[in-house]
Structure formats: C-alpha cells, structure tokens
Design brief:
558 residues; alpha/beta; 12-stranded mixed β-sheet; 4-stranded mixed β-sheet; 19 helices; globular
C-alpha cells in the first residue's frame, strides 16, 4: 500500500479562511491581524476583554521517546478534532517548530497523517516570524553587552564571566564555541563566546512565560547577562536594552491562529525545547485558547519526565493553571524498543519484549496519578503490525494502576480515530476530580528541588553535585534565587541522565554538572549529562530532501 506523505495530505486540504476559524473560536474580527488568508495573529487585548469562563485543560504527554516514534503532537491534534466530532467546543494550543529539527533529523512539528495543523509548510518554516524576532532580541542584547564593554565598561563587567550567548534558529555545531572580537581595538574585546539554538535562549522562555507586554518587559529587565569583577550580576535592565528588545517582540507576543485539517481552531505560539528548556507553548496562547473553547488540548515536549514535569512544576505554577486531565501517549513499537528490541525487529509480535519495556509507561502513569494527582488516560497509537495480544497486555497492565487505555488511529483517520479517546477525556474531566500537587514546594533549597524531581519523577536514588555546580548553587542562593522552580536539562531518551538506560531504570544517580539562573524566566537551569544547547546536523540532514518546484510548491518536509 502506498501512503501519502504528510506534506501531500496537508497540501490537499481545502483550508477555511482564517476569519472563519476565528468565528469558530468566538474571536471578534477587531482582534484579528491577518497574515494572508490562512494565518493570523490575535491581539492580546482579547484576554482582557473576554469575560468567558475558562474551559477544561487537557495535557497530552508521552512515554520516553524512541526512534520508533510516539506521535504526541499527532494525538494532540487528533484528540482536538475528535472532541469537535462528538460535539464539543474545542481549541488546541501547540508549540511552534524550530528550524533546527525541521532541517535536521526530527522533522517538523505540525502533526502527521490526517491529524495536522495547516498551512503545514508555513508553520514549519518562517510562519509569522516569531522565532526571528526572538533571535533578534537575543542578539541585540548580546551586541549591547559587548558594546558597553567596548565603550569603557562603566559597569565593570568581567569579560571572563559573561553568561549571555548569541543565538540562531539552526543546528550549527560550528558555532558552539567561538572566539570573537578579534582584529584589533576597533573591532571589540577578544573573548570566548558561543551560540545557542534560538529555542534554548532565555528570551524564548521569557516569551513563553510572560502574561502581558508589561510582564514581558519586567522579565526581560531581570535577565542576567554577566557578572562584575566584584561578583555582582549585570542585567538587561542595567544595559538599558529592555525597551528596544520589547519593541522587537511586540508583535511576536500575539498568539498565532491557524487550523487543523478538520477546521478546529489552533493556537500555535512559542516553542522552547523540552530537554534543554521548559518545552511548552506560551502562557498567553494557552490562556487565550482556554477562554475561546470549552475544552483546550495542549502538549508538552518529549516524555512526561521532561515536558510534563516542566509544564506542571513550572508553567502551571507560574500561570496558575490546573489541568483537568492528562493523556499519556504510547506505542507498542516504542515499548518493545524499551524492552531491548532493535528498530528492525518491531514488526513481529513479542510480548516478552513488551513486558520488559512497559515499566516505562507505568512509571509515567504513576507520576501523573500519584505524584501530581491528576486524572489520566493512556492513548495507544495503533500500528498495523500491533497484535491484539500485545494491545490487551498493555490494557491489562494499565488497568492495574486504575487507568483506562484507548486505542487511537488519528494518523490514519483524523478526528474519527480520536473519538473514543475524546469520550474518555470528557469522562475524566466531568467525573474524576484531581488534587493537583507539584512535585516540590517553593521553600525547598535548589539541591532539594533537583533531588525531589530525580527521586519522585525519574525514579532515581538521588543526585551527585559536581564541585563547580555546588559553588554555583551557593552563589545563586546567596543572590536570592533559592525559592524559584528548577528546569532540569537532561537527555530525552531515558529517565536517567544516561541515554542508554531504557525502560524504567533503577539504582541510579543524576550528576549535576552546571547550574545557572534564568532570572527573567524565573527558574534555575540545571545541566546534567552531555546536554548541548546548540544541536548539530546529522550525517544526512532532512534539508537534503527538501525542494521547491517552479510554482513554489514545497516537497520533502515531514
């Protein structure tokens, strides 16, 4: 059987004019700023002006990812379309894709098959320019910092203690470590420097956690870019950069409205990575989606130990959000990989491998229901090679934890394949009340918060803090940052900090290598394992297969 590619399916869709989508989302035309016929930005004044009660919030997360794929974004979109098909007033809130994965190895992030948001090419490429604006604001701050040093360094910045990097929204390992300011006195002060990918920039985190332009400005002003010779932090506010940075972001901060293949309103806005940042779309877009629909489906990046943990412990804490239900996405194929099978062995029935791999799913479920105390359902993305025996095994194991399992076929059938999942989600929202709890309290020390996540969420024995990281923790606590959440950067491929430890590993410790503050975002970044804030391209980048014909039609995107 020949399957159509994601981009072919998306290009065949007859999209509705974005004004029609706005009507479905109860958005008055005065708030719409159109970008052509199928994209729009929505004025943030809508949030202040609307007196509609917030709808129910559904979080979609997943098991620990494998090369077999889980389909989390696809499930999120298919569930929203499924809710619409059973008569619910629904919106969806997603992250914007980064160009790094689009041209690298992971591909785009607009869903797949018959559960996509469109226009797919626009969303995966430049979209409405938000990431360009974020990169420009980041690099303006870098330029003003180096210019301040060049023009006499009135603040006494120690050039060996500059923490602010430039950024670009591309996988470019060549830029991880650079020496700049070369060429003599007129060309700057020579120093070691480096680039992050835009989605790892603190500006992205600030952008996604801000509640308003005013809040955005306040957060930007608190960003620490360097330290002085006498150990005092230097902020973007000290450099008088905040007004200009906000001017670059004033349009970007407005959420983007697009549609699913079935015409469900979709807010796609912001996109920090979940392994190195907090992995959630913007607070403003989520709140707008909640105002405009009775049900809002959103997602968090990678597995529940990363995206969902940060969604719940950081975003919900800061924005005052409480999910009404959580969907954990799994596949038989991925669980068999966690059980030790190679990708080439997944097409054959193997309940033994499934039994070895299913503890990964069960730990994620337990975290949602026992640590965070939220109602949960498992969505199994069914593949043609999955057998009834394998599916029944998963259903019975989840039932032991008091959680229902629903088969999802949204990739092949769109909203129709998400109707059963939609019904279970509605039941959870209406019949089961959670007792939402964070995995740690604000008053714990930085190291106690890290340890709480490692023990409660990852299933580890504790943490090993390297001497350099211990000094950084002490300095940050002395500066008054001890009471903020922690954002742990670790591999997405394991509960531990070792990507080779699949399934649900036990008897491990997580090594804390570096700790730094994102004062504007309002959290502490904890670096573990070999985490890179600037990815590289693979041997055969996805970019090699992307092309445009004489009519401007793009092919090769996935």
């Amino acid at each position: 059987m020949t399957y159509k590619t994601d981009i072919e399916i998306a290009q065949e869709c007859e999209m509705l004019n974005i004004k029609e989508i706005a009507k479905k989302a109860h958005i008055d035309e005065k708030y719409i700023e159109q970008y052509g016929n199928y994209k729009a930005k929505i004025d943030t004044a809508l949030l202040k002006d609307s007196d509609k009660k917030d709808g129910k919030l559904i979080l979609v997360t997943a098991i620990t990812p494998t090369p077999a794929g889980e389909g989390k974004t696809t499930t999120t979109i298919g569930l929203a379309d499924g809710l619409k098909r059973i008569g619910k007033d629904v919106t969806v809130a997603l992250r914007e894709p980064s160009l790094g994965p689009v041209f690298g190895v992971k591909g785009g992030a607009a869903g797949g098959g018959y559960a996509q948001v469109v226009p797919m090419e626009d969303i995966n490429l430049h979209f409405t320019g938000d990431f360009h604006a974020i990169g420009a604001a980041n690099n303006l701050l870098a330029a003003m910092l180096d210019n301040h040093i060049q023009q006499g360094n009135k603040l006494g910045i120690d050039v060996r203690r500059i923490t602010w990097k430039r950024c670009v929204d591309m996988n470019d390992r060549q830029l991880r470590f650079v020496t700049d300011g070369l060429g003599g006195k007129a060309n700057g002060v020579p120093r070691e420097d480096g680039f992050d990918i835009t989605v790892a920039s603190e500006i992205m985190a600030v952008f996604c956690l801000a509640n308003s332009i005013t809040d955005l400005k306040e957060r930007l002003s608190r960003i620490i870019v360097a330290y002085t010779y006498d150990d005092k932090p230097v902020t973007a506010g000290d450099l008088k950069a905040v007004g200009a940075m906000t001017a670059l972001l004033k349009d970007a901060i407005k959420p983007n409205l697009v549609q699913t293949l079935e015409g469900t309103p979709a807010f796609v806005h912001g996109g920090p990575f979940a392994n190195i940042a907090h992995g959630c779309n913007s607070v403003i877009a989520t709140k707008m989606a909640l105002k405009m629909g009775d049900y809002t489906v959103t997602e968090a990046g990678f597995g529940a130990d990363l995206g969902a943990e940060k969604f719940l412990d950081i975003k919900c804490r800061m924005a005052g959000l409480t999910p009404d239900a959580v969907v954990v996405v799994a596949t038989v194929r991925a669980l068999k990989m966690h059980g030790g099978l190679a990708k080439t062995q997944l097409n054959e029935e193997d309940v033994v491998a499934l039994e070895k791999g299913i503890p990964n799913l069960l730990r994620h479920i337990s975290n949602i229901t026992n640590v965070y105390k939220l109602p949960c359902v498992v969505a199994v993305n069914r593949f043609p090679t999955d057998t009834d025996k394998e599916i029944e095994f998963i259903i019975s194991k989840c039932r032991e934890l008091g959680v229902n399992t629903v088969l999802s076929t949204v990739w092949a059938e769109g909203g129709k394949g998400g109707e059963e999942l939609a019904k279970e989600v509605v039941r959870l929202c209406e019949e089961e009340e959670g007792d939402f709890t964070f995995s740690y309290s604000d008053d714990l020390s930085i190291s106690e918060k890290i340890e709480a996540v490692v023990k409660k969420v990852y299933g580890g024995d504790g943490i090993t803090i390297m001497p350099n990281a211990q000094k950084q923790i002490e300095q940050l606590e002395n500066l008054g940052f001890g009471n903020v959440p922690v954002c742990i950067a670790k591999t997405q491929y394991s509960f531990s900090d070792d990507p080779t430890k699949l399934g649900a590993p036990e008897n491990f410790k997580v090594t804390v290598k570096n700790v730094k503050v994102s004062a504007g975002a309002g959290f502490i970044v904890v670096l573990t394992g070999d985490i890179l804030t600037m990815p590289g391209l693979p041997k055969a980048p996805a970019a090699e297969k992307i092309d445009v014909d004489e009519n401007g039609k793009i092919s090769g995107l996935f």
